[in-house]
Amino acid sequence: MSWAMRRLIFGRTNAALATALIPTTLTLAVVRATGSAAALGVVLACELVPMLVLLPVAGVVADRFPAQRVVFGADLLRGAAQAAIGVELLRGPARIPELAALSAVTGAGVAFGTPAVRRLVAGVIDGADRLRANARLGVAEGLAQMAAPAAAGGLVLAAGPGWSSLLTAGLFAVSAGTLGGLAPRHAAPYAGRERFTAELREGWRETRRHGWFLTTLAGHGVWHLAAGFLLTLAPVIAVRHLGGDTAWVVIAQAGTAGMLIGVFGAGRLRIRRPLVAVAFGGAAYGLPLAALGIAALAPSRALLAVVAPAYFVAMFGLGVLSPLWETTLQHRIPQDALGRVGSFDALISFASRPLGMTVAAPVAAVTGTAAPLLSLAVLVAGANLAMLLLADVRGYRGSAPGAREQAVVAGAAAVDDA
User: InterPro entries this protein is in (predicted)?
Assistant: First the structure.
């Protein structure tokens, strides 16, 4: 493993751990102070909304400026917001207006860091090693996300939420220092670009140019929406019909294991057509939706033996999907547009799942839990397998960057040599 890859993984692991600490810390802090679900919803929404609004802007910034500097600034911004939250919580009970405002700052940091990280990986790691790098990043980030809730909960109980937020700030500072010092070797040179709005329009034109990207993005949006439904309704079905709290723990752990095995294996499996694998990986999410829908229609504890493996397979598919998708974007999208195009990918991902979680309970109250889950199972499978109708999806072998990206990289090398 190269020094650059080690540094990249170390920095991203710290950032992932810090990001995953935030929801648990904020939840416990707000519930302790107010006991109000509405107050918690306001604080969490104040992080999400700026993130969604600023992502297209962040894509332009990621393409305009060196990726390592954007990531450095984004992590410092998030670290500063979390440090301020920590100080606020140490001073006394949580005050919702202050937490909401600082959460909005955190969301802005997430927005600007997300597209820049993708460009940083593409610039630091050689094309042939990107799949391996993305798989290792996925494993490290997955482990960090698994450990974070327990770590945050333990720290809050032992020392209080303020110290948990200060730890989060420190992790973001480590990430900023680690990633901000990386020097991309394959970065696209900055050359007199147009006005900001013109670059934004150009990014959308570049996005529309790739039919395979838009089709895949639609499929991803559907399974993210379905994930919001599943994560909201599945615990209720598991507790009521599949054996109680233990049943949901078994299902959740099966999914976690599937995700980690899938991410770990993606860099080692010989997948000749990555977008075909991405299509099947997304479609597999229909399996636990169907299994849970059947469990809601015909309750039986024996169905746990079907639901848990189905969720394992689905999360395995998503684990394989993630590094393959990242690597495909880094290969097929020109580096000088990767931030803007990638921001639309992040926008769909960040928006669809919370939407699903928001509407799942009201929809289920009207239709029952089985109908939306079974409908989404069909929709997820159909939307993702529809990608296979495109010859550009079936035929892509992922062997090397596209011609336009090669030209950009060559231009960057010429600038470096001059």
Answer: MFS (IPR011701), MFS_trans_sf (IPR036259)
Residue-wise pLDDT for 71-89, tens only, equals 999 999 999 999 999 999 9
- Name the token pair of 209: 């140019």
Domains present along the chain, CATH in parentheses: 3-187 (1.20.1250.20), 205-411 (1.20.1250.20)
Reported pTM: 0.81
Report whether 396 contacts 329 (CB < 8 A). no
At 24-71, the pLDDT tens digits run 888 888 888 887 777 888 888 888 889 889 998 999 998 888 889 999
For residue 43, what are the contacts with CB-CB under 8 A and spacing of at least 6?
26, 30, 96, 99, 100, 103
Residue 257: which H helix or E strand, with range?
A: helix 245-266
Say whether 270 sits in a helix, a strand or coil.
coil
DSSP annotation of 141 reads: H
DSSP string, 356-398: HHHHHHHHHHHH-SHHHHHHHHHHHHHHHHGGGG-HHHHS---
